[in-house]
Amino acid sequence: MDAKKNEILKKLPAMDGLLNQPWVFLYERQLGREMVKGVFSQILSEVRKAVLEDVPVDASLEGVNTKAEAILQRRTTPGLQAVVNATGVVVHTNLGRSCLPQEAVEAVSYVAARYNTLEFNLLEGKRGQRNAHVEWLLCQVTGAEAAIVVNNNAGAVLLCLAALAREKEVIVSRGELVEIGGSFRIPDIMAFSGARLVEVGATNRTHLRDYHRGLSDNTAMVLKVHPSNFKIEGFTAIVDREELSCFAKENGLIFMEDLGSGVLVDLSPWGLVGEPTVRDCIKAGVDLVTFSGDKMLGGPQIGAIVGKKELVDTLRTYPLLRALRVDKMTLAAFEVILRMYLQDRWQEVPTLKMLTLELETLKKRARRLRGMLKRRFPHIIATVVETQDAVGGGAFPTTIIKGYGVALQIPALGSAGSLQALLRNAAMPVVAGASEDCLILHCRTLMEGDESRIVESLSSIGEVGICE
Ligand SMILES: *Cc1c(COP(=O)(O)O)cnc(C)c1O
User: Fold this and answer.
1) What global pTM score does this model have?
2) What is the pLDDT of residues 123-133, one digit of tens each?
């Protein structure tokens, strides 16, 4: 090793000295000495490696401190942070899907901090059922006989298949063997549950005769799956629910549907057509319907299973249920949401409110946002534009809902892509869309107060660049 490298390595700050710097104490209190020490030792070894390999590196005390502080700073900010959703995608899975209304949030904190009736029947003074708090409500808003809830819809499908079709066959149309968001695939869930998948028909067309051909002595179920995030168009055929229901009855099979999003109300007046409500499915003769609580329903993450009492009763005692059960905070929020549907106040649920916003309202909001931006940053280029918003969460995959937003250009801060990145990393992160060379702030998904948050975030990243 040459003398120069040796000299640099010898001058590297020592661990004790690093740890005893006053600014480090603040982090030590929040993260513990071991964590802070680990960060410094990682940095020191990277610096040593760079020196030995002749890679340019700042080996000074300031250099090491700067690197360490950046890492320690990140570690002290909460990982799960609130963001502004300016993407126009209402049920945005990566951004937490549905936002709860205030009354649901209050119910969550109320039961979270106190002992409660989660599994306690006050009238009888003995053990109660956690499911009972929401079962009657689910029945009321869907028209089903019985209901049960689990951790999420994937869990709901798994539980049904395992409890009702284990070691038996389940017929599914080839057009419905879908994958949702990378990790949920019908064939995989099926294999995991111990049920045997019998594929029938073709990708684009499945007829009743195909279902007949799929029958065997060991068939337990016909499963219909919502194709979620894609749509087959052109030369297509599917068997409708009524026909499938008759087919299932004639052959003594269970007819189950994984509905995915689970709409409880008719949204066709707002241009959202073609999705059946859960009630429609029950009416059409589906024995068990499963759906998510946090997609278009607008509630917390939950998987709901509604349908025939006899089948739901089987699920209640199946051991896997214990591994999928819902906690008290989720139940508290879900109960509130279902009551809002019961009282016909569903438009106050944020997800539904966003989906049913009038175009005029959105246009006004976009104008207001543009006004706020222009007042604070007179030199930016900001225009009110029509936007293409989306439901998200695998519902209405091909429906583009028209909306309004503000297109932003700030040449001093670079391309739309770099502006997106800067806003994402602001103290109050803003996730926005982009179109060509403009950043697009979609107004549909903004929550109360988000306009000022956007203004604040913009000013934090580039007051200089914006006000040149
Ligand atoms: C979203 C979806 C699921 C998974 O639901 P989670 O609540 O995310 O577990 C399953 N099936 C379909 C058809 C879906 O759209």
Assistant:
1) 0.92
2) 999 999 999 99
